[in-house]
Design brief:
GO terms for molecular function: ATP binding; protein kinase activity. This protein is α+β, with helices and mostly antiparallel strands. The chain is about 50% helix and about 10% strand. Among the domains are: about 90 residues, Phosphorylase Kinase, domain 1 (2-Layer Sandwich); about 240 residues, Transferase(Phosphotransferase) domain 1 (Transferase(Phosphotransferase), domain 1, Orthogonal Bundle), CATH 1.10.510. The strands form three sheets. The protein has a five-stranded antiparallel sheet with strand order 1-2-3-5-4. Strands 6-9 form a two-stranded antiparallel sheet. Strands 7-8 form a two-stranded antiparallel ribbon.
């Protein structure tokens, strides 16, 4: 091979190599210019590598590099580097460089020790200051009027509502009958909100409400597009028809009053979401493929949001259709973070205790092994969190629940409570092997949608609904799921783009 190289090329390679290595040993920053002056003499020889390079272009580049090398900041940086490493041997310098690189990789690995520290000690105080100035941290009962009840959980009740304008006085008592319609028709109340009343006197409700508030503030900084915009909280100062003195309320900007579970109750689901997800009814596509495109678009959004949440160290622990709000713009957003845990610092994590819905929880039941000790103080927990995530992959807890959501959307018989419970009994009997369940189930499910495109949807479902293997692996993470062939076809994205172009036209 050496004989095939021309003398000119060999000379250039040798001289450049010698020059670059000798550069590291120079003591004067100005000697960096010698490298470029030598390079300038190789105009003709460089053509062998890069083609014809105009002289003025190379001259300008060299002059720019010379000016940079002679700048005070650059020279100061070189001097500081030489001062620190001047007494080190070549091997010690390489060891220092490797150590610095490994440290950087560790601090930036999921769930992010470095970015977590920046968030806790910089972004959080800044957010607190800005919210205090804007009045978000001093909300009052009289700032809102309550509308219809939208839902109820173990620890809270959700209502629609509106912000009371400054120039409007609202009567303390509002008739329950028809008050939601009154809010909708009253032009004074333009800023709609969603309010959640934390139940008073229910064990664990106050703690759950405090955690939900903390997680909403955290995600409003780290991943705001994954959840509804959080406006703040207030404590009722008196008891009335809707308020209990001392009761806590959480407030979000209104982005939709229907969740995925509400839409799934419709017999025509998922076609009922077609115009919401794509802006119009898709033309020229048979209904079965339209259903598949809608489900794929929903799944893409859910998993993308979970990936962003998991990257911050948070595990939702309660992913299900009832906790997935569908906005008027066709966005899927996660709600109800009362059961969430931040495993970067151990927030809302207690070993041997779990908050879950038995219809959607994975076989491991716990987000971390039961023998995991209680979390140490937050700084220590944050520093050790990359090791915890590497060994246990707690984010895969949410991915099993996501697989159940996929099955429910694609298989009509699993959308009912009874159908889902029967599925859980059968899948447990076959040790969470979805392929075996398909062979032996008595539910006679219609799997046509999942079998489209050579069964890519079914393959994704089998890789989400499964037991954890050795080293707590054996299930796709959110990042790996987004790389699955099911999403690589991109038909749902193309439909969304085409619908937007059509609407624009």
């Amino acid at each position: 091979m050496a004989s095939l190289l021309s003398p000119t090329v060999t000379t250039v390679q040798h001289n450049l190599k010698c020059t670059s290595f000798s550069l590291l040993r120079r003591t004067s920053p100005n000697n960096f210019c010698l490298y470029f002056n030598r390079l300038k003499g190789y105009h003709g020889r460089c053509n062998a590598f890069f083609g014809n390079i105009p002289d003025d272009l190379l001259d300008n580049a060299i002059n720019l590099d010379q000016s940079l090398s002679q700048s005070p900041i650059f020279q100061s940086g070189i001097m500081q580097f030489q001062k620190v490493t001047g007494e080190l041997s070549e091997m010690q310098r390489w060891e220092s460089l490797v150590f610095a690189g490994l440290t950087w990789i560790y601090l930036t690995a999921r769930p992010g020790v470095l970015i977590g520290a920046i968030d806790a000690y910089l972004f959080a105080p800044v957010q607190l200051g800005l919210d205090s100035l804007s009045g978000r941290r001093s909300l009052k009962r009289t700032d809102f009027v309550i509308g219809d009840k939208l839902g109820e959980g173990s620890f809270g009740v959700v209502y629609s509502g509106a912000i009371v304008p400054k120039n409007v006085t609202v009567e303390e008592r509002v008739q329950k009958r028809g008050r939601g319609k009154t809010l909708e028709l009253d032009e004074r109340f333009k800023e709609k909100v969603i309010l959640k009343k934390v139940k008073v006197g229910v064990q664990g409700a106050d703690e759950c409400g405090d955690f939900e508030e903390w997680f909403n503030y955290r995600l409003s900084r780290a991943a705001p597009e994954t959840c509804a915009e959080f406006l703040g909280s207030f404590v009722a100062d008196k008891t009335s028809s809707q308020f209990t003195k001392g009761g806590k309320w959480l407030v979000w900007k209104f982005e939709g009053d229907r969740n995925l579970a509400d839409y799934m109750k419709d017999r025509n689901f998922p076609l009922t979401l077609e115009s919401v997800m794509f802006g119009r009814v898709l033309q020229g596509i048979e209904s079965l493929k339209r259903n598949a495109l809608i489900i794929k678009q929903i799944m893409r959004q859910i998993i993308t949001s979970l990936k962003k949440i998991h990257d911050t160290g948070i595990v939702h622990r309660d992913v299900k259709p009832a906790n997935l709000v569908v906005t008027k713009r066709g966005q899927i957003k996660l709600i109800d973070f009362g059961a969430a845990t931040d495993l970067r610092i151990g927030k809302n994590y207690v070993p041997n205790r779990t908050l879950l819905d038995p219809d959607f929880c994975p076989p491991e039941l716990y987000v971390l092994p039961e023998e995991t000790p209680s979390p140490p103080p937050e700084p220590v927990a944050a520093f050790l969190s990359p090791i915890l995530w590497l060994l246990n992959s707690p984010d895969l807890f949410d991915m099993y629940s996501t697989g159940i959501v996929l099955l429910q959307m694609a298989v009509p018989t699993l959308r009912s409570t009874a159908g889902l419970k029967n599925f859980n009994v059968e899948i447990k009997a076959v040790k969470y092997n979805l392929n075996k369940w398909r062979e032996y189930t008595r539910l006679r499910p219609d799997l046509t949608i999942l079998d489209l495109d050579s069964g890519r949807g079914w393959d994704l479902a089998t890789k989400l609904i499964s037991e954890r293997g050795s080293l707590r692996r054996g299930r796709l993470s959110a990042a790996a799921a987004l790389r699955h062939p099911y999403f690589l076809l991109g038909g749902d994205q193309a439909a969304a783009v085409l619908s937007k172009l059509s609407l624009t036209k």
